[in-house]
Design a protein that fits this description.
Blueprint lengths: L1 H8 L3 E4 L2 E4 L2 E2 H8 L3 E5 H14 L5 E6 L6 H9 L3 E4 L2 H9 L7 E3 L6 H9 L4 E4 L2 H14 L3 E6 L25 H10 L6 E7 L10 H17 L5 E3 L17 H15 L3 E4 L3 H4 L3 E12 L4 E5 L8 H5 L5 E3 L8 E7 L8 E9 L7 E4 L20 E6 L2 E6 L13
Parallel strand pairs: 4-19, 5-6, 5-12, 6-7, 7-8, 8-9, 9-10, 10-11, 11-12, 14-16
Antiparallel strand pairs: 1-2, 2-3, 4-13, 13-14, 13-18, 15-18, 16-17, 19-20
Length: about 425
């Protein structure tokens, strides 16, 4: 078991003397101290992922912009900032978070299909590095506020190249039937019309293909398409923003290419294009496997048809299984000796049949109320997608650094649920 989970956690979460540890801290101790549900992060796992990603894309001029939507906790953002990364944002709220975390505006890239006027205005006022443009009307808005602040604003055109990728259909973002990006004709027209614009400078292309991509070939195909497009329209991009989407293993058997393989193939294509700067927007890769969610067993329901373990975390805390049918490894916080196992569905307290965290999960046959379970790969699109559905407070978040733990988000109280209501 330990060897298998190392493929997911890289040794930062592991069993030691039959107890599950986050770095040098037993998660049982964390649960006793802070209660459950509870998100637990490994500080050194986060540093390791940042380092590995930077090394994979070394040797060329890159701007690595962490995707804030994956996990927007301020403590995590501050660590990421301290280690030299920028940020990819998609809203005014994310812009404000980035500024509070003291990211340099020159390391902020603004993407997204629905940028509001006031968000564009604030981003230009703060002098962020660039915008990724999703439609022609954005150009006029950006020009309006750039003129007001007497600035020339760098923009990249997000292309929709109609490239299919092997991932959940909700996070495929490069097919022509999705809302994302510009078709080739629109992009060509914008380039032509913007050549003499005093306030908007189109410097390149944005190519985000989707999320949780396990192979480099879609990136290679996209860059080859851009190379062909550039030769057709006689345009040399200074910037290529390849987006993110770099996948991680959620299960020991998941086959995901090493990030070094992505780096080798992508850097070669960037050199062929002659771009001066490669922008990358990793989110899941940086934080996905740096956290677990702790939950406690409330009840065990045994039926001839199916067994259920009802826990105190639900789809309000971690929606990915219900929303994407995603798999997250679920483990006992304490291993027994020569234990028999049964298969159960692990479900939450929410009043929805779809409120599950794992299906047909093997758990000890003697599982009982009060037992602690560990849900893996809980760092990306987990707390950031949490809600107060069923009027349940959101959980606390804890950062572990070797044998020390610190609260990086307090557990919500009940009176937090109706703040702002009249």
């Amino acid at each position: 078991m330990e060897k298998d989970i190392d493929l997911i956690f890289n040794g930062f979460f592991r069993y030691k003397s039959k107890r599950f540890y986050a770095e040098e801290t037993a998660v049982e101790d964390i649960a006793k101290k802070y209660g459950t549900p509870c998100y637990v992060y490994s500080y050194h796992s986060l540093l390791s992922r940042i380092k590995k990603f930077k090394e994979a894309f070394g040797g060329i001029n890159t701007l690595i912009c962490y995707s804030v939507k994956a996990n927007s906790n301020l403590s995590i953002l501050k660590i990421i900032k301290e280690h030299g990364l920028g940020v990819d944002i998609v809203s005014g709220g994310e812009l404000r978070r980035a500024l509070i975390a003291r990211f340099s505006p020159k390391k902020i890239v603004f993407a997204g299909v629905g940028k509001r006027d006031e968000e564009i205005a604030l981003a230009i006022k703060k002098n962020i590095y660039c915008f990724n443009i999703e439609n022609e009307e954005e150009i006029a808005l950006i020009e309006k506020y750039a003129r007001k602040h007497r600035r020339k604003v760098i923009c990249n055109l997000r292309l929709n190249l109609d490239i299919d990728v092997d991932t959940h259909h909700y996070v495929k973002t490069s097919k022509k039937e999705t809302k994302f990006g510009l078709d080739i004709n629109s992009a060509s027209r914008i380039l032509k019309n913007s050549r003499n614009n005093r306030f908007v400078e189109i410097k390149g292309f944005h190519l985000h293909l989707g999320s949780q991509l396990k192979d480099v070939q879609p990136y290679v195909k996209a860059l080859e398409s851009v190379k062909y497009l550039c030769s057709e329209i006689n345009f040399r991009p200074e910037i290529i923003d390849l987006g993110g989407g770099f996948g991680i293993p959620y299960a020991p058997e998941d086959k995901v290419k090493d990030i070094e393989d992505f780096g080798v193939a992508i850097k070669e294509k960037i050199k062929e294009l002659g771009a001066n700067l490669l922008i990358l927007e990793p989110g899941r890769y940086i934080v996905g496997n740096t956290a677990v969610l702790l939950c406690s067993v409330l009840y065990v329901k045994r039926r001839p048809e199916k067994n259920f373990v009802i826990v105190d975390a639900g789809m309000n805390d971690l929606i990915r299984p219900a929303f994407y049918s995603s798999y997250h490894i679920i483990l006992p916080a304490k291993q027994g000796r020569r234990v028999n196992y049964i298969k159960v569905d692990i479900v939450g307290p929410i009043c929805e049949t779809g409120d599950y965290l794992g299906k047909d999960v093997e758990v000890p046959a003697n599982i009982k109320k009060g037992d602690l379970l560990v849900i893996g790969s809980a760092g990306a699109y987990c707390f950031s997608m949490a809600s107060n559905y069923n009027s349940r407070p959101r959980p606390c978040e804890i950062m572990v650094k070797r044998n020390r733990d610190v609260v990086i988000r307090k557990r919500e109280r009940y009176d937090d649920l109706w703040k702002g209501e009249l």
